[in-house]
Amino acid sequence: MSKLLPLFRGAVEAWECDQMRHMNVQFYMTKASDAFAQLQNRLGLSPAVIRSTHKGLRFRNIRTQYKAEVHVGTPLYGLGGVREVKDNLITGFIHIFNSVNDRLSAIYEFTADYADFETDTSLPLPDEVRSAAEVLADPHPDSFQLKPFAGALMPARPLDHMFESARGSVDVWECDQFDHIEMRHIVGYFSDAATHIINSVGLTREVIRKRNLGSAALDYYSEFHAPIRKSTAIVLKSGLIGADGKIFRFGHNLIDMDTGKLAVTTTVLGCYFDMTERKSVPLPEEFTNYPKEKLLGAQL
Hints:
Blueprint: E1 5-11, H1 25-42, H2 47-53, E2 55-66, E3 75-86, E4 89-98, E5 103-116, E6 121-123, H3 127-136, E7 163-169, H4 183-200, H5 205-210, E8 213-224, E9 233-244, E10 247-256, E11 262-274, E12 279-281, H6 285-288
Antiparallel strand pairs: 1-3, 2-5, 2-8, 3-4, 4-5, 5-6, 7-9, 8-11, 9-10, 10-11, 11-12
Helix pairs in contact: 1-4
């Protein structure tokens, strides 16, 4: 019997697409979050159980890779499963497909633990959750599995030459029932930071439009260190780690300004593409000419 689970079905809405004319990364995350809720339900953590106990699974880290862009109106479906249960951690995956051609569009590989959402503390997996996860656990050799993230990763500490790329506070409508920021809005901060990163290397949106260029995220790796709650003031610090050929790499530190704690670290790989041909192109010279002494990679 297959242990691959149906976890999502939906479509790309017009308001989920950005100026690149494809679905924005934050809305991929929305669909993956919906799929994660379905997976929790299969493990016995139904919405009713989570509401009554104030406990459930939360992400400790997520690896995301975008394989093929999707556009407004594209129907989507999601499959996923559990790869491993080790100690008190569950490793799993979610794959988002284009329903028209069954093409894999995005991959989420994650590690999750069981937590008290009121105290934000990690807890041992309940026996019934562990048992359900162990029944579903399978290496899934027939499902695409990502290779380890290659190259420098953003460390959980500040680095020289990082700059402010986003600042705000967490609104009520950005939060779940336990007043934690939803994953979509964390990714949204990273997406909004892209324009500031472009400006940091000496480019503007006007120049990019004249060159008929678009940009796309290819690969994310995020680690979650501390929760972010409703009304929290946050600041995002970012910096270019490196740029070579067609690929740029930058890092983010999302900081809780109320406590000073580093909440999320993320490493992003991306590229530029021709907006007409929808094919990747060499990086603009502004990236490759960026002062080497300002690259975060020199500190890693």
